Known about the structure:
The chain has helices spanning about 20-30, 40-45, 50-60, 65-80, 90-100, 115-125, 150-155, 170-180, 195-200, 215-220; strands at about 5-10, 15, 85-90, 105-115, 130-135, 165-170, 185-190, 210. The protein is α/β, with parallel strands linked by helices. The protein has a six-stranded parallel sheet with strand order 5-4-1-6-7-8, with helices on both faces. The protein has a two-stranded antiparallel ribbon with strand order 2-3.
Amino acid sequence: MTAVQTIFFDLDGTLIDHFRAIHRCYNYILREFSLPERDYADLKKRIGPPLPVTVAELVGRPDPDLVERFCRRFRAHMQETFLDGLEELPGASWILDQLHRSGRHLAIFSNKQIRTVEAICGHLGFDKFLAGIVATEERVDCPRKPEAAFSRHALAQLKTTAELATLVGDSAVDHRAALAGNFAKTYTVATGTHDRDELVAQGIPPDSIFANLFALGTAVFHLKR
Length: 225
């Protein structure tokens, strides 16, 4: 019996554009804390690292208590508004549907909290294509990408092995997560916060980068549009 390939998909910047909601939420909380708002382009370049890292940069001074309070308010407000402005990126439903029909096991592999990912996937209809969702929990010691422990957790949750795993993401964090888990293959789409040149500069092999999900699906998985 032939083993089934498992394909993990990052969420933000890979399958969805969530940045309008994220940008709106950051500026809402920045105003609450009497901190200067950030424009769309500036903030978009800062997104990717764990929330406390991004917030520490925005705060601009070493203040762990302020960072913790900001993160708490951000998560609470985002939970109330995260579906506002949410958009599916071009090719997302198409590639999930086609790969699902081909017999692959598909899963989300995200640093977002699990309840948020479940709600997004249900809202956009991705859930019907998925064999699983791997995301973070609320506890502070929860592993996340690109930690090897999180990649191993993803493999265990989908009951697969690294040799049968592929990761599709939009960032160097995703690429490093695949390497940390010894995934067989990793591909990157330039639809997130970084363009192709920036992704190459961050160490991602140029031949593994694709303009979008349509380009990836046709070139790598030989899917028909």
